[in-house]
DNA sequence: CTGAAAGCGCTTACAG
DNA sequence: CTGAAAGCGCTTACAG
């Protein structure tokens, strides 16, 4: 295909073959049934041969205009340079491509105005559906989007009763609590992430519930909100480690927060994995590569993305009842979580 | 806008106002000049008012079909879960949105077959242009794409004479060499990345040239290829540190590779920043957060992405001569680069 | 199995 | 300043 040759169209192919455009359409892009039948005919063979020779590719804008289906989906994420979201998006994009869906992805920075503006921008592109990876617990924007009849699913974070594919964050929090309890930690704290994200909320809740079941109630000041980045983790840990009865173990609801917390611990002269235990969440690839490898909860983010794409595709296709999915996490124990310093060996 | 109301179209607006669709089109979506003139008329006011009230949004598929312009661009990256590429993409997406362009982004894993297949998939979507963030030095695929008359730019990696926005990687390599020479390192090695990426090649070349100018020629076995991830850095460093006259400093052409190298150093009982100097490239956010903060070359990846988007937009618009851009890097010195262990203080 | 027709929602050169 | 017409490239119900 050289630069000057105009792209072939159904029309141009029909003309060259002395056929009608509708015939060519049915053979090349028609539904399976018809295409298959047409396949038998010798005409079908001629059409297919010429189309292949010319490198015919249907014009998706024409198809979308005609069918009112764009085969496009939009994906909203807080920020793609966060490896957690990037990995989820990779899963979405991969599964979407398998389903012949193309994706637009955009950052919303977790800011409501940006979320609203970018959602509108994506809807203006006439996507068939949306994946929200930035849902806020209040669900206000989602309510509006749902009211318009727009199809969507949530991924990573849940909100209300909207269909969502998430990690079982509550269970993940419990797993960490189990582990720290087993090591003998009774004086612990949680760096809980921002208050609008179900991930942090559920992880913290699972952790606190498990401790409560063990007879240890975490006081409110031991569950501190934070950003999801290293700076947030550092600041939160700084506060916790300056308190009177310093905790012997920290559960950060995200690995970056945990890395920031490790920095704060260092500033306090504490060695992670020896003087203080720190656990994170997500098991990002770097967790295992740190000088003191980080104990973390592994969730299959790529698979989460794949499932979200498929769930959305099902909804778009109008398939049966929609049920949210919750992936089981596993705890990966590494050397960052030691026993309490004064514990008997 | 409720679920059951059909979306307004130019037609529906024209009908409600007793006007012709072409009039409405000119007022709502027409070129600046006409729109402005139409603005004065009282009719224009009525049209605009109703459109706003109904929440009219032009159907981009219809517009694209008619104008043969999709306002869509495609972005090819090795993998989005690499924070370097994710950050570049954020810049592309941000600038593209400002230019009213929407972007498709896809992973190609640096595999030629995938690159080819995904490029075709993106072109099938009738994008107006492409940004390649995964160019291979041989430029084979790019030659094919160029031969079709497709418009594109490269970002991060350059190839042939195709328009590209890159970091001045050669200069970056020189900066690191300057720094290590200043510290007194004469026995050094480079972990150079894969042989198909201009980034690693140029960084290694700048480094080696600067050392040569200082009278120190790096033997070939001191410039070892690697992957761009921690595993690759670890393996390469493992080899280098097992050699007879062990280098006192390592330049890894990427921060992940440097982190992997630090792991290998630890395995050899070497403390980074005390027994061995290690420098990276890109200054990813984590570099400053490591227990031993990493010396690295900073390149403004977000800005690189923004410029690539604008360069492509210029090419699509058919504006003047196209010139590649090369952003100046800066060296960020941190504690990972110490003097050679046996150097006089 | 193939053809003819209508129409998805827009833009734009041509009249008036 | 506004209208009428043509057409971008497809799909699909209706005939034959």
UniProtKB/TrEMBL annotation, chains A, B:
<dbReference type="InterPro" id="IPR010982">
    <property type="entry name" value="Lambda_DNA-bd_dom_sf"/>
</dbReference>
<dbReference type="GO" id="GO:0000976">
    <property type="term" value="F:transcription cis-regulatory region binding"/>
</dbReference>
<dbReference type="InterPro" id="IPR028082">
    <property type="entry name" value="Peripla_BP_I"/>
</dbReference>
<dbReference type="Pfam" id="PF13377">
    <property type="entry name" value="Peripla_BP_3"/>
</dbReference>
<keyword id="KW-0804">Transcription</keyword>
<feature type="domain" description="HTH lacI-type">
    <location>
        <begin position="8"/>
        <end position="67"/>
    </location>
</feature>
<dbReference type="GO" id="GO:0003700">
    <property type="term" value="F:DNA-binding transcription factor activity"/>
</dbReference>
<dbReference type="InterPro" id="IPR046335">
    <property type="entry name" value="LacI/GalR-like_sensor"/>
</dbReference>
<protein>
    <submittedName>
        <fullName>LacI family transcriptional regulator</fullName>
    </submittedName>
</protein>
<dbReference type="InterPro" id="IPR000843">
    <property type="entry name" value="HTH_LacI"/>
</dbReference>
<keyword id="KW-0238">DNA-binding</keyword>
<dbReference type="Pfam" id="PF00356">
    <property type="entry name" value="LacI"/>
</dbReference>
<keyword id="KW-0805">Transcription regulation</keyword>
């Amino acid at each position: 295909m050289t630069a000057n040759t105009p792209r072939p169209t159904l029309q141009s192919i029909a003309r060259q073959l002395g056929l009608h455009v509708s015939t060519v359409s049915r053979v090349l892009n028609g539904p399976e049934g018809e295409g298959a039948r047409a396949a038998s005919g010798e005409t079908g063979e001629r059409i297919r041969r010429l189309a292949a020779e010319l490198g015919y590719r249907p014009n998706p804008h024409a198809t979308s205009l005609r069918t009112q289906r764009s085969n496009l989906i939009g994906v909203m994420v807080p920020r793609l340079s966060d490896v957690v979201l990037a990995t989820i998006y990779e899963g979405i994009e991969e599964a979407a491509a398998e389903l012949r869906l193309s994706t637009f992805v955009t950052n919303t920075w977790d800011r409501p105005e940006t979320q609203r503006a970018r959602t509108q921008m994506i809807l203006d592109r006439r996507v068939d559906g949306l994946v929200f990876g930035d849902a806020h617990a209040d669900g206000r924007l989602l309510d509006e989007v749902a009211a318009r009849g727009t199809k969507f699913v949530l991924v990573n974070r849940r909100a209300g009763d909207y269909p969502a594919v998430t990690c079982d964050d509550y269970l993940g929090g419990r797993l960490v609590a189990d582990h720290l309890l087993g090591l003998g930690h009774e004086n612990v704290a949680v760096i809980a992430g921002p208050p609008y994200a179900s991930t942090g909320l559920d992880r913290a809740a699972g952790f606190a519930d498990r401790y409560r079941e063990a007879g240890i109630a975490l006081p409110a000041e031991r569950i501190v909100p934070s950003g999801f980045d290293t700076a947030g983790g550092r600041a939160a840990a700084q506060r916790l480690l300056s308190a009177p009865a310093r905790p012997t173990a920290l559960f950060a609801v995200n690995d970056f927060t945990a890395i920031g917390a490790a920095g704060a611990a260092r500033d306090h002269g504490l060695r992670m994995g020896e003087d203080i235990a720190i656990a994170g969440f997500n098991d990002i690839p770097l967790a295992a590569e740190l000088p003191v490898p980080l104990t973390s909860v592994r969730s299959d983010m790529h698979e989460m993305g794949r499932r979200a794409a498929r769930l959305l595709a099902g909804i778009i296709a109008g398939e049966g009842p929609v049920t949210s999915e919750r992936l089981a996490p596993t705890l990966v124990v590494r050397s960052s979580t030691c026993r309490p310093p004064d514990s008997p060996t």
